[in-house]
Amino acid sequence: MSTMTDPPKADFRLSMLINDTRYRSLTFQVIAAIVIALSIWYLGNNLIQNLRAAGLNISYSFLGDPSGYDINQRLIEYDSQSSHGRAAVVGILNTLLVAFLACITATVFGVIAGVLRLSNNWLVSKLMAVYVEIFRNIPVLIWIIIIFTIMTAVLPGPREFRGENPTSSMLFDLFAFTNRGVYIPRPEFANGLFGATFLNWLLVIAVLVGSWFATREIEKRASLKQEQTGERPKTGLVKLAVWLVPFALLMVLMGLTWEVPALKGFNFSGGIKVGGPLIALWFALSIYTGAFIAENVRAGIQAISKGQTEAAAALGLRPGRIMNLVILPQALRVIIPPLISQYLNITKNSSLAIAVGYADITATLGGITLNQTGRAIECVLLLMLFYLTASLLISMAMNIYNASVKLKER
Amino acid sequence: MADQTTNPIAFVADGTIPPSPPPANQTGIIKWLRENLFSGVANTILTVLSILLIYVLLKNTLPWILNGVWNADSLAQCREILDGKTGACFAVLTERWHQLIYGFKYPDDAYWRPNLAFLLMLVAVAPVLFFDLPRKLLLFTAVYPFVAFWLIWGGTILVPIVALLGCVAAAVVFQKFGKNSFAAGFFGGIVVALVVWNVGGALIPDDANEGALLSAVPSRDLGGFMLNLMLGVTCVSLSLPLGIALALGRQSDMPLIKWVCVIFIEFIRGVPLITLLFVASVMLAYFFPPDSTVDLFLRVVIMITMFSAAYIAEVIRGGLAALPRGQYEAADSLGLDYPQAMRLIILPQALKISIPGIVNVAVGLFKDTTLVSVISMFDLVGMIRGPILASTEWNGVYWELLGFAALLFFVVCYGISQYSQWLERRLATDHH
How many domains does chain B have? Predict the structure, then answer.
């Protein structure tokens, strides 16, 4: 019987670097490392020379300088005396706001369209197919512009609300739809428990979260009771009370009032202004991405074989429970990963805000700040850093979710 | 045998009764309507709502389209002709047709050049898309990029010829040495091409553009839908090989290569295309040698190619991962080395699986070429939003122009996706 022996080590020849698989990968990597180092050196050298020629340097101190421009749509305090850094933060919050809103509505549109596309109703399923094809095959930039144009062309200007016989009137005297944006009443606390509005809102959220945990506890107890006695106690009213009573108490305690928008001079004032660009971007992103989500939902539902439904029916489950307990948990495993990558796309596509003048991070940091300070490299790098962080966080969440729903095979 | 007439039984059927037609509401169009549109209360409500929706849409758009004015010089004249009726002003399309298609700076007398290039592109692309066509046509496909470059940019014919010569030399070297060692052929080819390009580039006289057969057109004069098409076609074709290389690199056993590819792919996929276009417009110029002038078109092509290569790489990686392990092992056991195994066994199968994904990326990329309007290039959207809507004649003609742009993109993108579905059926070699 022969034994495996190591090949003789003594006769190492130079040609083995290419021909011997043991050394070849090492050779290639060394060559690659040299090439990469050389190109980085070359590009860096060009950069340094060009910067020197233009009399520039890399510095982020411009972020502290006053920005000198105004932003209409903002979630935090900001004026033209604030720094460029604060403008960037306003932009980041605006990006997150429109991405968050669009994710929710896109999911709603997508799920409705996806389910209706599988409907038995011929007309409805064809209509949904037309919706999906039209929106998927036309660039989102064109949709954003079209919807922005609809907003500004179709909705009345603020001046049409004026005078004795205005041509337009406010909806329920609470909401005003104008071509500059939609004005909605703003909730305010007359006697808040804290000085800062921000803390008051945090309290409201804390109370709601508390109610949510309480209802979950009630559900759990009901299930326990059901397992012990076979009878499920009625929990509907109790749950409703747990949701409503603490919330209502808090509202009365803090003195909730609504600041209703009113026409003052040439424009509306008071209330919350949801600007036209925000609405156009929000709606365009949701209806465009909704078409993609519809396809994902359809694929997910179709991926579940009909045998599953039949087996569940054979076990005696009612149709609603078949959907909830058998079909959806399996379909969601197929639907959710592409859904999350659609959310990623929404976040990235929200950078098209610059086309309609919505002040997201691309428009503030990558647009006005860049043009005013001329700090192209710094601004673009910061911009990329933000989007990269956001994408990596979202894909990390996706990986965690995927691991948790993975089929446990034995 | 007894006589029939004396049969004691009163009546005997002498044949089968023909089947009677089903009840009127169980057949034909009525049955179809009942089953597909009015099978229940909820369905009926949905049907009625859909019909209402279609009615409202048609009621608002049909008169607008049918009353459309096709011949006028300005919006004011359109309104005069319409005389208060609702109607579209399609005259903007006919009057500004050249601007929409070629941009506003491309020389008038040279419009035949991009037209010819477009027609030739159809010929060049055909053998790639349809396998039944004679393979000899691929030769034309290989020459096409140089012909198209010469037609669109014009100038001296020496530039495309030198470029073509470099590629031919590289191909010859690869044929000669690639049989023995893929690496020797590949890198030798690159070196030879670089040598040919440098020597040839030095030989071309500086004033070669003067008196050339086709007048030279600078890149910044390109525009309109032509620019979208050029960016889409160029970037997709360039990013395919790059994407394959990145996908293979990401699967590599060599840690350095693998991590370089992973970082590149994840970085590009993590940022929006618009930031990459910002890089192209304001930042990339800093990375070229100080005295070089790389024009914006080329910088945009570089960035978009990198962008789509990262996405295509991920699609192909999916295809590679979907292949059974046995295929790799079979290739190894046949004694094929890595390039042979990839070229002959792995990639043909992996690419076939990836086709739908690649087409999706291509469609998405073609739609994304509209983003160049944000960095003030005048593509179709840029033309509409810039020179045309800003002109005094056509200020306010939104719907006709945007609808036209949407229609153009829809036709191209829908066509590509239909082709991809046809190809999938065509390539399905597994039977079930």
Answer: 3
This complex has an ipTM of 0.86
- SS3 string, chain B, reads CCCHHHCCCCCCCCCCCCCCCCCHHHCHHHHHHHHHCCCCHHHHHHHHHHHHHHHHHHHHHHHHHHCCCCCCCCHHHHHHHHCCCCCCCCHHHHHCHHHHHHCCCCCHHHCHHHHHHHHHHHHHHHHHHCCCCCCCHHHHHHHHHHHHHHHHHCECCHHHHHHHHHHHHHHHHHHHHCCCCHHHHHHHHHHHHHHHHHHHHHHCCCCCCCCCCECCCCHHHCCHHHHHHHHHHHHHHHHHHHHHHHHHHHCCCCHHHHHHHHHHHHHHHHCCHHHHHHHHHHHHHHHCCCCCCCCHHHHHHHHHHHHHHHHHHHHHHHHHHHCCHHHHHHHHHCCCCHHHHHHHHHHHHHHHHHHHHHHHHHHHHHHHHHHHHHHCCCEHHHHHHHHHHHCCCCCCCHHHHHHHHHHHHHHHHHHHHHHHHHHHHHHCCCCC
pTM of the model: 0.84
- The superfamily in CATH containing domain A84-185+260-405 is MetI-like (1.10.3720.10)
Residue of chain B minimizing CA distance to A27? B254
Please report which confidence band the pLDDT of residue B313 belongs to, taking 50, 70 and 90 as the band edges. Answer: very high
* Cβ separation B272–A140 shorter than 8 A: no
**Does the pLDDT of residue A405 top 90, yes or no?**
no
- Chain B (222-241) residues lying within 8 Å, Cβ to Cβ, of chain A: none
Q: Which of residues 383-412 of B touch A (CB under 8 A)?
A: 385, 398-399, 402, 405-406, 409-410
For chain A, the domains span: 84-185+260-405, 186-259
